[in-house]
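discrete fold record:
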Amino acid sequence: MSILFEILILIFFVFFSSYFPGRITIERLNLSEQEKFVLSFGISCFLFYIFGFLSYVLNISIFNGFFLLILLLFSIFFLYKTSL
């Protein structure tokens, strides 16, 4: 049972971290909801690729964790701010 719970948490984390950082950047664009949905995944994957590459080039292993934490906190903040 705990393995299933861990898998569900991991799925939620992957979806959250690959959707909301890009959604923040395209929120104000005049696009349809389907275009925003797809574009947010693309932009988020691009951001994670760039910062992963920078952590490889700079040889900083903790850089990805801090970047992910900052992006998740900003995305929660902006989602809360736009819902009010």
Observations:
- The helical segments are 2-26, 33-58, 63-83.
